[in-house]
Design brief:
It contains four helices and three strands, in the order H-H-E-H-H-E-E. The chain is of the alpha+beta class. The protein has one domain (about 5-70): Arc Repressor Mutant, subunit A (Orthogonal Bundle), CATH 1.10.10.10. Helix 2 packs across helix 4. The protein starts with a helix and ends with a strand. The relative contact order is 0.20.
Length: about 80
Amino acid sequence: METLEVIRTLPPSAKLLLRVLKENKISRFEELMEETMLSKRTLLYAIRALKQMDLIETQICMSDARRRFYCVKLR
């Protein structure tokens, strides 16, 4: 499947999250919640959907391993 076809099959929350991540390049979960105004549960669902489609990746903060950063995967 091509990337555009994959994106069309995503739920609206995942499409919104992908757009925000493309604009910001890299963001923390709290920043994503604030910018998208999605609930925590919906945002987690969107992140899971994008990870399953291999469109985003998670990076761990070196100074605080509890924090995660999310970014769009480069192809």
